[in-house]
């Protein structure tokens, strides 16, 4: 029978935001990055079928999303 090593001590968190909150933030960040990456692709498809938004509105939305991405990356990078 193999002996199991018990790890009864908790290591201190490395980042200020950790655990479940960090995972949720990272999922939201990945979602925003995917939105920015695929925005023009889906907007072009919408334009073909009669929808979509104009270029000025698209630039505003992309700039807003990029700003949110930068803020979230800075929050996730804060260490203790």
Furnish the topology, listing elements before pairings.
Layout lengths: L19 H29 L6 H23 L3
Helix pairs in contact: 1-2
Task: Report what the structure shows.
The protein has 80 residues and is an all-alpha fold. It has one domain (22-77). Helices cover 65% and strands 0% of the residues. The protein is built from two helices and no strands. Helix 1 (20-48) packs antiparallel against helix 2. It is elongated and about 60 Å long. The mean pLDDT is 89.
Q: What is the beta-strand fraction?
A: under 5%
**Unreliable stretches, pLDDT < 50, 5 or more residues?**
none
What is the CA-CA span between the terminal residues? 41 Å
Question: Any idea what the radius of gyration is?
Answer: 20 Å
Largest sheet: none
Q: Total number of helical segments?
A: 2
Indicate the percent of residues in helices. Answer: 55-70%
Which class of secondary structure composition applies to the elements? mainly alpha
Instruction: Name the helix and strand elements from N-terminus to C-terminus, one letter apiece.
Output: HH
Describe the global form.
Answer: elongated
Mean pLDDT: 89
Number of domains: 1
Number of strands: 0
Main attributes of the structure:
80 residues; mainly alpha; 2 helices; 65% helix; 0% strand
């Amino acid at each position: 029978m193999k002996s199991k090593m018990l790890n009864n001590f908790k290591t201190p968190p490395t980042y200020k935001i950790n655990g479940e909150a960090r995972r949720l933030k990272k999922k939201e960040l990945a979602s925003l990055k995917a939105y920015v990456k695929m925005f023009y692709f889906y907007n072009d498809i919408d334009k073909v079928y009669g929808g979509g938004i104009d270029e000025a509105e698209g630039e505003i939305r992309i700039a807003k999303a990029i700003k949110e991405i930068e803020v979230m990356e800075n929050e996730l990078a804060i260490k203790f």
